[in-house]
Amino acid sequence: MSYQPPSGPPPIYGSSSGYASPPGPPPNHDKAPSIDNAPPPYHDWTVIPDTSTLPPPPALSHDFSTGANATGDEAERGRTWCFLFPLWSPRPMSSEQLQAARAQNHTLIKAETYVGDLLQHNPGPGIWKCWTFAGCKDSLIQTALPNYSAPADSPMVTGRSKMIYFEIKIHSVGRQGPPPSPPETADAGVAIGFFAPPYPSFRLPGWQRGSLGVHSDDGRRYVNNTDGGLDFTQPFLAGQTVGLGMTFSIPRNPPAYDVQENLLDVEVFFTRDGRKQGSWDLHEEMDQDQEGVQGLEGNYDLFPAVGVWGGCDFEIRFQEKDWMYRP
Fold this sequence. Notes:
SPRY domain-containing protein; 4 helices
């Protein structure tokens, strides 16, 4: 049997299909673009975040001092000494020693390199007169007893803050008269600071581990820094009285996740002629190449110290009644 197609055109083409297209052009010719074709939401990147709660950036350490610089051999000798003699554990003191330390009745010990004299002021025991000669090399003067005893003074033990502080009155430092032009390396100077024992007596406070100090020749602060220190204040001048203190307090914030113990809050502050002139947080942000603050955080005993080189004349004042600064 043969197949015969129906007569006429296919139904779709005929007028009898019954389907009428909607009026007007296709929808996409006259409507707004769909949401898929719209630009992405506008991100308000112009809003400036609040950085007031972030810690300040670390202070930049200098490679060299603008004043006097010890030689590389002396710095290496200091590092070797500290490697051979690690920090001592805190040592308990007798009641008599604690009483003397808290009354600031200190005896001074001078380095073998110290060329000059130490004389306790009469009638009071809290003032020592010190002078050195031009040939004096870097030398440390320290007390026989600590100003801060970790077993007795730590806020973790007592539940209250502890401040240690002392002053030096500068009569003369090195060459007298106006500074030379161009400037020369300082021929003399003093440094005021603290250290955790033992400490090399031929190094200034702030240069080796477990120590900090502010130096007269450049006004910089040093914390375990054998290089050029960090900018801090103006150099010390004859006739001025400068002081250095540390305040240890119960921590205000919980320890960080990577810290095993709750560190004390420690503020280091500097005064000049009785006025507080600057301070820093011991646990501030540091450059990666800085070597830390071990020994200074309140878990070791701390001794006041004065470093000196060249010809100087000054007084060390330990007792509050003789300070210019009033806490």
